[in-house]
Request: fold
Amino acid sequence: MSLKVGIVGLPNVGKTTLYNAMTGLDMPVSNFPFTTIEPTVGAVSVPDERLDKLVKMYNPKKVVPASMEFVDIPGLGAGASKGEGLGNGFLVAVRESDALVHVVRCFKDEEVPLDGPLDPLKDIDSLNLELIFSDIDMIEKRIDKIQKKAQMKVDKESVIEYELLTKCHDFLVDMKPLRDLGLSKDEIKMLSSYAFLTLKPVLYVLNIDESEIGKEDSDVVKKIKEKAKEEGALAISISCKIEYEISRLEDEDKEMFLEELGLEKPGLNAVVKAAYDLLGLYTMFTCGDKDCHAWTFKKGMKAPQAAGCIHTDFEKGFIKAEIVSYEDLINAGSEKAAKEQNKFRLEGKEYLVNDGDVVHFRFNL
Ligand SMILES: Nc1nc2c(ncn2[C@@H]2O[C@H](COP(=O)(O)OP(=O)(O)O)[C@@H](O)[C@H]2O)c(=O)[nH]1
Ligand SMILES: [Mg+2]
Reply:
């Protein structure tokens, strides 16, 4: 599953700080806008308490968590859709992302330069506007091409496409993102080749002051969370700087620091989990005394396709899947006990794999 989450936001909001915290890498972070000059991709392990419990049960030699890719996409200042800042080259990186994490600056820090007064809601609009302009631009180019054909009703496809694009265009010029338009599944499928930027699922990461961690949300954070809800987007507030510091600590120190902050877990866990959900991803596990492995597959996949996420041969030669749900296995206490309680099932090609299924695929080559 090579799905990518693009990290976007205005300059100096903490994108690279968040990226470094998640990936464990150390890309340059500074107060200069456009410090990051190229999109960088990094793998991030998906935190999963279920895997931790399975590891306790199986005691394997090796543990492999599910992972997903995040891309630090710089250069999206106001005017990006017109080639300003680092230009619209970066819009390509946005286009190639399957979902977006939009980092919003809510922290006050005199030392980190800001373009005008701190105004997170305005910042959100200003970045979203660039994405809207880019989509409008793309639609207008396409409409120019097919308009004549559609109006003369040369073929049915161009008429349908023209009408759909016109509907999208009218919505965008009202400065609204396409994800709010309520398009049907079929319409979304028809539009998939355009990879519209405002149709991508979004998670707002509100980068708050460290003094606000664990406190009640500030008014502006509350407002953004409401706005996100209306848009069908998600929002999480964390301090990217503190998350970065947490990510660099050894386990023991980490726990102490989290306790001091009044946090149960790092805020990053929730960010990664939310991004995973945005992409419509599920996790299945393969377990044994050699290794415990969490695997990512797409919600709605049948057993052979899910098997293909482990190895293409598994899909080609799929015979059956031996399956126990995570809950049944944990409740039974061991694989042996779960088998004795008849909690293992044999499923065939039509089985829709569930989130948390512990699987063993039978295949032949
Ligand atoms: N006070 C504070 N500073 C931060 C925070 N996150 C990032 N910064 C600082 O803001 C500056 C820009 O951060 P960076 O991650 O490079 O932002 P980017 O331009 O969005 O990639 C750096 O000096 C960071 O140390 C935060 O949560 N609090
Ligand atoms: Mg950066």
